[in-house]
């Protein structure tokens, strides 16, 4: 595994630096920090900076990224059509978009024709794909009907869930033992020993699943575990007074949700997160749907996880396989790209609004995934 180093994360420094002990976090609790960081615990720090400074520019860039991670419908339509359109025109624009990314439902026969004499392998994201996006991520449950539908699919085709959540959490939410599970954006994969194929199998360890069955674990970011736990604890501490902020530990990555935070407080969230992350050059931040994701800087993503699972299942160089990946978020684009290369399989984007994607087909929402 290639563990790359990188430059420090973008920084939003405040006007009144304070040390960690002011936040109740002693430096001895932060063994991975590479320098003495300067924290701003002042919630007005962003607005008190001098206008036009580098920090303001950085601040604006990140805030814009946070805002655009879940833009209003009208703005999305404007971005796509290059002109202002009324929300009422949304359906027309959406239908125009599906000319480029046809509905997987309407293309069912085309998919089946290509799947003829091939083995379908199905990959599914969880949030926004099998479950609706909800305000409280702990309440993102999939319906019983959806569970039955996935169970039926898994009866006939190898089926894997690849989620940003921890593997344990997504297993708890899905609850189907016949599936393969990859948590932490593919950085935590479980696969049974009988599927062990030849090839590079570093970062693999043997373990037992919840039923006591022997399994193989692939955890390419295992060395980051103490660092992730440390950052998680720090983020929980510094965001505890920001109403609506929620920090989740997904084992090999951490999420900071700001969906329920007043938009006026988003600069505070951004500042705290980036102030902390600037001391962790081996961690990076990506933007999800009203969530900041903190993950290790390693050459691994959902696309690599798809390739790993295909290889584990003995399908890596097999022309008789048709992989299908259904997902809704930017992290799923890596998987779409892998399937797009060489027309290897089909990516299916779940989206109610038009957007550029590496997927081949589209579905409007999780209810269409179920069908
Ligand atoms: Mg998702």
Description:
By secondary structure, this protein is an alpha/beta fold. The protein has helices at residues 45-48, 54-68, 73-81, 90-100, 108-115, 144-156, 167-174, 225-239, 266-277, 302-312, 333-340, 366-370, and strands spanning 17-18, 39-40, 119-124, 159-162, 180-183, 188-191, 204-208, 214-218, 246-249, 254-257, 283-288, 291-296, 321-327, 346-350, 361-363. The strands form three sheets. It has a nine-stranded mixed beta sheet with strand order 7-8-6-5-4-3-13-14-15, with helices on both faces. A four-stranded antiparallel beta sheet has the order 9-10-12-11, covered by helices on one side. Helix 2 packs across helix 9 (266-277), helix 8 runs antiparallel to helix 9 and helix 10 crosses helix 11. The model is unreliable at 1-54 and 79-86 (pLDDT under 50). Bound molecules: magnesium ion. Magnesium ion is lined by residues 125, 127-129, 327-329.
Present as ligands are: magnesium ion
Number of E-state strands: 15
| Helix percent band | 25-40%
Output mean pLDDT.
Answer: 80
The gyration radius over C-alpha positions equals 22 Å
Topology as H/E string? EEHHHHHEHEHEEEEHEEHEEHEHEEH
The number of distinct helices, counting runs of at least 4 residues, comes to: 12
Beta-strand content: 15-25%
Largest sheet: number of strands, sense, barrel closure: 9 strands, mixed
The first-to-last residue Cα distance is 38 Å
The structural class is alpha/beta
Uncertain stretches of 5 or more adjacent residues: 1-54, 79-86
